[in-house]
Amino acid sequence: MKRRLKSVFNWSGGKDSALALHRVLEEGEYEVIALLSTIQEETGTSPLHDLPLELLHQQADSIGIPLYPVSMPKDSSVYDTQMQATVEYFKQQEVSHFIFGDIHLCDIKAYRESRLQPLGVEVVEPLWGKSSEEVIDLFLQSGIKAKIIVVQADKLDKHYIGQDLDATTIQSFPKEIDICGEGGEYHSFCYAGGPFKRAIPCMIEEVMYKTFSLQLADGSQSHQAYWQARLKQALNSWA
Questions:
Q1: pLDDT at 217
Q2: Do 160 and 151 touch, CB atoms closer than 8 A?
Q3: Are 191 and 145 in contact (CB under 8 A)?
Q4: Cα–Cα distance, 106 to 55 (Å, whole number)
Q5: Is the dihedral angle over the CA atoms 128, 134, 136, 138 positive or is it negative?
Q6: 16 CB contacts (<8 Å, ≥6 apart)?
């Protein structure tokens, strides 16, 4: 039997992560020894998706692969240092590949390769190069269940928060958005199907309106507004 390559899967908890991991586990080329998630030190939640650490652990427990959370302070200047230490930790366990769920954002893939390849770790992208339509079709075929938990306020209405990411919801998206949310239009939380051995019951505590300002390379400011669900564990159902 061919020896499987030891790897770490970079886990966000959303649909692309779950689909990419599902394909990797089905194909069997890689031995995934950990799900790596970064956690915001100040909030105890993941970036973008804003998932509580306890729910990330629930996902990992359901999948059957341990979660490896890396706490990151708001000061982004230490990010590279802490991630390099994390990579070195896994290299001591003979990990040679880091797996991601990216689709077609070339700058993100190039950034990952620029940081990992000099450390002797290869980047694996199971969904890379597929169109958003192909990825959504694969997602729907996989049986993975996900709910929309973040939407960009100027692209999608608040009522999308909490909706299942199914064919009906996808067909209702405005034509101008990327149906996979590759432009940041939405983010999701996966809770059943695919790689999950049991469903993860959750509830939405509240839906918040958040705004962010980002400084662009030319010095100008970009302002973004989002509707974001705050999730917590539930006993046996979504609410």
A1: 59
A2: yes
A3: yes
A4: 30
A5: negative
A6: 101, 102, 103, 127, 135, 180
The per-residue pLDDT for 212 is 80
Element (H, E) at 189: strand 186-192
For residue 216, which phi and psi values (nearest 5 degrees)?
-85, 170
CB-based contact 165:192 (threshold 8 Å): no
pTM for this one? 0.93
Q: Is residue 140 part of a domain?
A: no
The total of structural domains in the chain comes to 2
**Is 120 in the same domain as 160?**
no
In a shared domain, residues 54 and 120: yes
Asked if residue 88 is part of any domain, the answer here is yes
Contact indicator for 19, 127 with CB cutoff of 8 Å: yes
Query: Which residues lie across from 186 on neighbouring strands?
Result: 151
| Average pLDDT across the chain, whole number | 93
Structure tokens at 160: 């999308």
Q: What is the domain range of residue 109?
A: 5-124
The answer to the question of residue 132 being in a domain is no
pLDDT at 135 over 90: yes
Residue 86 near residue 71, CB atoms below 8 Å: no
